[in-house]
Amino acid sequence: MNQDQWTAIDSYTNGLLISHDPALEKASRMSGEAGLPDVEVAPNQGMLLHLLARLGEARSILEIGTFGGYSTIWLARALPEGGKLITIESGILFARAARENIERAGLGDVVDQRVGRALDILPEIEAEGAGPFDLFFIDADKAGIPEYFAWALKLSRPGSVIVVDNVVLGGALVDPASTDPAVAGARGFHELLAGEPRVTATTVQTVGSKGYDGFTLAVVNG
């Protein structure tokens, strides 16, 4: 198997299982036209997030790392009436593109967008009493994953679901000699997870149009 085959399979299955969606397609296209890097989740990964939110009957979602708002739209659409999603993004260009994409998708009243460093904003969210959240999606800088995960736990409840994206880093996760802060963050996160009795978790490797990587799925124990 190679990248061409992974991409072809994604194209085939997405074409069959994911309906044509002008808002999502435009969000992806507009992010590219705005000069943003192609770091959003793939359509099938977006659908997975949507399904996880529905399976957990999530009414409140916290996303760390908005990027262009593509994953935000997938998640927000899974919420029932009265549900709320808070999303945090530190990049001004990302946040601006995301706001346009979210508004265009008709989700401006559902999504509460916060712009700034997550580690500055998360204490504010706690102070507001906005939690606990039913679902967390962490897809920000990888060096900060351990701290973001710790905050997710703080803002969770028994049964909350925490999804952390891009934790395999093309296989670099298993390189203890790496000096890359992203690798250090992903390894530190897994070591933290291994000793954390409050959650049950697994990491799944993935291949597809976005290449080789993986995600961690954790559930907060009752």
UniProtKB/TrEMBL annotation:
Its EC number is 2.1.1.-. The keyword Metal-binding does not apply. InterPro entries: Cation-dep_OMT, SAM-dependent_MTases_sf, SAM_O-MeTrfase. GO terms for molecular function: methyltransferase activity. The keyword S-adenosyl-L-methionine applies. GO terms for biological process: methylation. SUPFAM superfamilies: S-adenosyl-L-methionine-dependent methyltransferases. Keywords: Methyltransferase, S-adenosyl-L-methionine, Transferase. It holds the Pfam family Methyltransf_3. It is an enzyme of class 2 (transferase). This is O-methyltransferase.
